[in-house]
């Protein structure tokens, strides 16, 4: 059966890998992101695309209207939009506290607010039963991210997902979080990755390799499948053993 799948951040990295996995199953995919050209160049078979700033309430409302007109019900909602803010333009600040305020505000807008606003705008469109909501967190939610802001913003998704799972569970909808470790072949790190840092991150794994977008996409795809119908309110780590348990 063809499903309607909405993926934020669907033009690159993990979001794109997930989009290709769902499209390969014959699902109808909507790619959301801020850069329309990137979405169109993704060339996911049969995909709809819509440029949207998911930190903007009006843009999220318009996106929800687009989904209603073009798709109707949403079977799978994947939140892959986000990032550490390294690729964002920031105002010049002389005051260190103002720089910290900018960094934390930016990270929460990119990683928390985008997911919350889109979920709340579409929650009444989630298929009942059978709907799936999937959030992308990070290993940084457990061990920090250096500045603290990115890890904290990702960690904020965990209690939100748990609350949402309790609210939507009686409607036959599951809610889960996937927390990747170091994933190569994405634009996440910008120019901030060097050979020494890469070797350290790979060395922390038990598998002896970096993760790929396909590793995470496969986990998202399974959590959205009928086989995972009784899996909800879980945080699934995909990090090669770099962070254990929880």
TrEMBL record:
It holds the Pfam family adh_short_C2. Residues 3-186 form the Ketoreductase domain. Its EC number is 1.1.1.-. The keyword Oxidoreductase applies. GO terms for molecular function: oxidoreductase activity. The keyword Signal does not apply. Gene3D superfamilies: NAD(P)-binding Rossmann-like Domain (3.40.50.720). It is an enzyme of class 1 (oxidoreductase). InterPro entries: KR_dom, NAD(P)-bd_dom_sf, Sc_DH/Rdtase_CS, SDR_fam. Keywords: Oxidoreductase. Belongs to the short-chain dehydrogenases/reductases (SDR) family. PANTHER family: 3-OXOACYL-[ACYL-CARRIER-PROTEIN] REDUCTASE, CHLOROPLASTIC (PTHR42760:SF40), SHORT-CHAIN DEHYDROGENASES/REDUCTASES FAMILY MEMBER (PTHR42760). This is SDR family NAD(P)-dependent oxidoreductase. It comes from Streptomyces andamanensis.
């Amino acid at each position: 059966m063809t499903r309607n799948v909405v993926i934020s951040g669907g033009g690159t990295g993990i979001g794109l890998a997930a989009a290709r996995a769902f499209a390969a199953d014959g699902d109808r995919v909507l790619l959301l992101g801020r850069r329309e050209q990137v979405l169109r160049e993704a060339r996911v078979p049969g995909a709809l695309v819509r440029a949207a700033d998911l930190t903007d309430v009006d843009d999220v409302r318009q996106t929800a209207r687009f989904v209603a007109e073009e798709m109707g019900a949403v079977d799978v909602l994947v939140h892959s939009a986000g990032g550490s803010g390294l690729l964002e333009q920031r105002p010049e600040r002389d005051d260190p506290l103002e720089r910290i305020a900018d960094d934390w505000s930016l990270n929460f807008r990119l990683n928390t607010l985008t997911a919350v606003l889109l979920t709340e705008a579409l929650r009444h469109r989630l298929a009942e039963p059978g709907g799936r909501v999937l959030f992308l967190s990070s290993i940084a939610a457990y061990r920090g991210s250096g500045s603290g802001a990115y890890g904290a913003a990702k960690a904020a998704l965990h209690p939100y997902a748990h609350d949402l799972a309790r609210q939507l569970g009686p409607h036959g909808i599951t809610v889960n979080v996937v927390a990747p470790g170091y994933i190569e072949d994405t634009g996440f790190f910008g120019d901030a990755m060097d050979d020494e840092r890469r070797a350290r991150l790979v060395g922390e794994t038990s598998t002896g390799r970096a993760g790929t977008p396909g590793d995470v996409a496969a986990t998202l795809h399974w959590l959205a499948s009928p086989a995972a119908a009784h899996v909800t309110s879980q945080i699934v780590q995909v990090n090669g053993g770099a962070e254990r348990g929880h």
